[in-house]
Amino acid sequence: MLVRVQNLVKRYGNLLALDHFSMEVGEGEILGLLGPNGSGKTTTINCILSLLEYDKGVIEVFGKAMAPDAYESKRNIGVVMQNVAVFQELRVDENIDYFCGMYVSDAKARRRLVDKAIDFVGLGEFRTFYPKKLSGGLLRRLNIACGIAHEPKLIFLDEPTVAVDPQSRNKILEGIRDLNRQGATVVYTSHYMEEVEQLCTRIVIMDKGKTLAMGTKDELKAMINDGDTVTVELYALQPDHVANIRQLPHVTRAEYADNRLAVHFDGGQHNLLTLLDYLKSRDLSFGRVFSEQPTLNDVFLEITGRQLRD
Amino acid sequence: MFMHIYKYRLRCLARDREMVFWTLIFPLILATMFHFAFDQLMGRQEAFRPIRTAVVASDAYRQNVAFRQALDALSGPGEGQLIELTVTDDREARRLLADGAVAGVITVGDPIGLTVSQSGIEQSILKAVLDEYAHRYATVTGILEEHPADPGGLLWELGQMRSYTQQISFSSAEPDTTLNFFYALIAMTCLYGGFLGLRNTTDVQADLSPQGARRSVAPTHKLGVVLYDSAAALTISLAEVTVLLAYLMLALRVNFGNQVWYVLLTSLAGCIAGVSLGAFIGTFVRKSENAKTGILIGTTMTMSFLAGLMIDTMKHTIARKAPVLSYINPAALITDAFYSLYVFASHRRFFLNIGLLLLISGAMCTLSFLRLRRDRYASL
Ligand SMILES: Nc1ncnc2c1ncn2[C@@H]1O[C@H](COP(=O)(O)OP(=O)(O)OP(=O)(O)O)[C@@H](O)[C@H]1O
Ligand SMILES: [Mg+2]
Question: Is residue B303 part of a domain?
């Protein structure tokens, strides 16, 4: 385990921000820390980084207790903070070089790393810009470059893509996957489910400072009894057909309204085929067919009774 | 690592426009304003002629040997002659004054009085000379009380009178009073190095800035970062004070005597005090950035005011009313270091000032670092 957090308790005055929170990050993972605003994602990361005092709990990084002076561990960590942390008086390349230089002292190696990082976030044509001249999204990209230029083994990214346009976001996500392929372990916080679904190999869902669930995407989805939902467009379906469909294997619900038949299955395989076979056998002609997987939002909804994005 | 952090810190601080304005441009503007104000006060600078002065030949005058000696010293012919003395009776003196034949009439009493019919450069110089005499007389009396058997000290002090007035009044053609303003201005500029120190503390603390947080997660020792940053702040501050000094000496022709290295040493100690003061306020005042800046400006202005930035006699007033203030006020220590450099042949008092400055700075730095060192924060 690269990171181990056990029973972490953190209070801000009377506010209990982390309530016996635990999680682990294995080597080579892209761990998604998913939770709504104020659920304690940033607090967790800042505790792991030894920036914040905490009331209780154990934090280990690279198998050693994490501490402000654990320089050996810190050397291999990269951090992209939620708040943009760059110097207004330094140009794009200088900012990256500055932060990279706190980890890598060899100037020549650093030049290569800085170029690579600039390329990574696509800021090539903005190299000599001062942060004030960058748009919000470009600034975020600079923020990312400053955190990862030194090619750390363990990277924390705290909502790095807020305000970044979809195209650049995809490029960044792709880049993170590349870093991961080259051996970096990533902890990624976000409240964008799609991002986490797309990127992360394992997901921790948290709310109000507690771990709600963790596992791979599929494990999490398997936790809720909603299987997939198939929707079929067809005209004038008779109620007895609907009743028959309800008798098909694994079907939990079937409703027909507005010329749409919605059928819910709980697990099982080839559900779509079974349904379509039935329709064909009765000579029912149908239009478009949709099959929907449950989303992490469904998982969150199921566990908390709330929408993740409210 | 030192060079890396130091180099970029220099860039950050030097490119911070607002900072450069307050720590460099603003003092230059003040210096220029002072200069023109004094220029006006003194009229065109002409070749210096001894100031024609009458002294009323009263009994008090005849009995005050020390004062008579001082006047003799100042009016003795030669290079250093400052006044041209007419000893006469009261009525005649008044007539000479009314006719404009003398610039002022001195009446000896307690205190020694000066009557003038108009104000101008000559009158200012006379006033400065008499003030200085009164100040010195108090010192001499002090020496006599403490060491009745040390006429050496007494003679030395009295001997200073002439060379002192000579230097100030002739080599720069400016009276002592304007120098005091410039000393206080330099002191203020040194202490404005506090802006740099203040910014450093913000940029190094994780709970004050995201930059601080990012630097706190880097594998660099906090003490290192603080020291390297401070070195950069000190460099910038000293460079700015040096520019101000050069401007004063070369462009405005202010004469600080010829001990350039000592002047620079004073500036260095002053800048150390300034940067430390900023660090101290930055660490111990838990308020917003603006509030801290306000407190820093307020503190430095008060210190400079007490050291004579606006009222030239302030220094003497403090020395009389609350002497301890002049030992703990960095601005007063800086101005007094310049002053003693200029006035006294020995460097004892100069080094006392520098020593006290460094001591105070050291205390502020140590306290700040002990506080800064705290490794984790309660909240960010
Ligand atoms: N400095 C602070 N002082 C007091 N309370 C705080 C502080 N920082 C965070 N909190 C509180 O702690 C809780 C967790 O906050 P945290 O920033 O960790 O959430 P988050 O999951 O990162 O949210 P977001 O998605 O908005 O970034 C919130 O209720 C927040 O109000
Ligand atoms: Mg957050």
Answer: yes
